[in-house]
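Field reference: sequence -> structure
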Amino acid sequence: MIGQRSGKAYPRRAYVAKRARSLPDNGRLDVKKGIPFAKYPKFVSNYFCGLALSGIYNFPETKYFEIPAAGSLLLATEVKELTICGLKPNVHYIPVTRKNVFDQIKKVLDNPQDYMEMRNRVTKFVRENYSDINKVGEFENIFNSLEAGMHEALLR
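Structure field:
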């Protein structure tokens, strides 16, 4: 499964979607559009893996976290910020390039048993570290530290 948007802002997605049309079995890639937001998590969870390809600004977008949060294996273009977020290539996701994307998709779909541990690991990692509840806790910690800092400044 690949993300919905493509075009000028997402040249990698556009390339992969266009190339897939010319391959037998559609390159084993499913390109869907118009999935309502409320149904999106369930939709993504129906796929063994999902493809996240960064846009022209080359940063991890929401798809990098939505795909594993839904329980699907992440295949993604490497971007520096993913490592900062704790996602490591070949540990939490399968890195793909323009040259190897279809080979990687085939390899994963032909041997899903080889990727179950990685899929489970990234799902657990993302759910534990990037859930809405987790983020509320992080904001609370930030606000508390700001409040403590302001309190100390007022006492000086």
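Note: The mean pLDDT is 84.
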